From TrEMBL:
Protein name as catalogued: R-spondin-3
Gene: Rspo3
Region annotation (Disordered) ranges: 174-243
Organism, scientific name: Vidua macroura (Pin-tailed whydah)
GO BP of this protein: positive regulation of non-canonical Wnt signaling pathway; Wnt signaling pathway
PANTHER family associated with the record: NEUROHYPOPHYSIAL HORMONES, N-TERMINAL DOMAIN CONTAINING PROTEIN, R-SPONDIN-3
Pfam families associated with the record: Furin-like_2 (PF15913), TSP1_spondin (PF19028)
Length: 243
């Protein structure tokens, strides 16, 4: 062993030196060179840092650098995240997205262009004027449609979602709210009055029937009881004609 190589290393190093840091790593750890000024120091990590990808070999696991425009990568030729100013597309970092795609500044990726989608027109509304459907001859009716899919930045914009047109209705007078309410109140009072009248008539009828029944009972009590007529056959005694 070289005199500058030490076996009693720390930080995951299997072998190390005072000048170059880690020279080899313990199993399952990745070896990576970090530049400090003009000097490179070897370190052992459980996973590769940003801008590097890991490769496993039988004797050592190493971290290798991604491409210059790539922030994180799976391999050198397949990027998973691009640096600022580049857009990710199929593992590559591009300054401009291909035709048919658009740049998504939120995810920094090239995505498909999405066009607006709307529903069919609704039926025309009733002919109205100033929020009323009566008291006029000419008004307006409207119809609307709903947005099903909002467009992306380069997608086709949504059309107008409401239409209005002139309309003509049969002129009729509007029923006043106060008058209608008054009529309903009068009908309710009349109904209650009729019910009360019927109730009073029924009460009077029951009272009259009860009074007549009590009068008949009193008359029956005041009349004297009729005496039972004697039986003439019993009163006449037999005449003895023997003497």
């Amino acid at each position: 062993v070289h005199p500058n190589v030490s076996q009693g290393c720390q930080g995951g190093c299997a072998t190390c030196s005072d000048y170059n840091g880690c020279l080899s790593c313990k199993p399952r750890l990745f070896f990576v060179l970090e530049r400090i000024g003009m000097k490179q120091i070897g370190v052992c990590l459980s996973s590769c840092p940003s801008g590097y990808y890991g490769t496993r070999y039988p004797d050592i696991n190493k971290c290798a650098k991604c491409k210059a425009d790539c922030d994180t990568c799976f391999t050198r030729n397949f990027c998973t995240k691009c640096k600022s100013g580049f857009y990710l597309y199929s593992g590559k970092c591009l300054e401009k997205c291909p035709d048919g795609l658009e740049a998504n500044n939120h995810t920094m990726e090239c995505t498909s262009i999405v066009h607006c989608e709307t529903s069919e027109w609704s039926p025309w509304s009733p002919c109205m004027k100033k929020g009323k459907t009566c008291g006029f001859k000419r008004g307006n009716e409207v119809r609307v449609k709903e947005i099903i899919q909002h467009p992306s930045a380069r997608g086709n914009p949504c059309p107008a979602t409401a239409e209005s047109r002139k309309c003509i209705v049969q002129r009729k007078r509007c029923q006043k709210e106060g008058k209608g309410k008054k009529n309903r109140e009068e009908k309710r009072k009349k109904s209650n009055k009729d019910e009360s009248k019927e109730t009073r008539q029924e009460s009077k009828g029951r009272a009259a029937r009860r009074q007549n029944r009590e009068q008949r009972e009193n008359n029956n009590k005041m009349q004297p009881k009729k005496r039972k007529a004697p039986n003439k056959e019993q009163d006449l005694a037999p005449v003895d004609t023997a003497h």
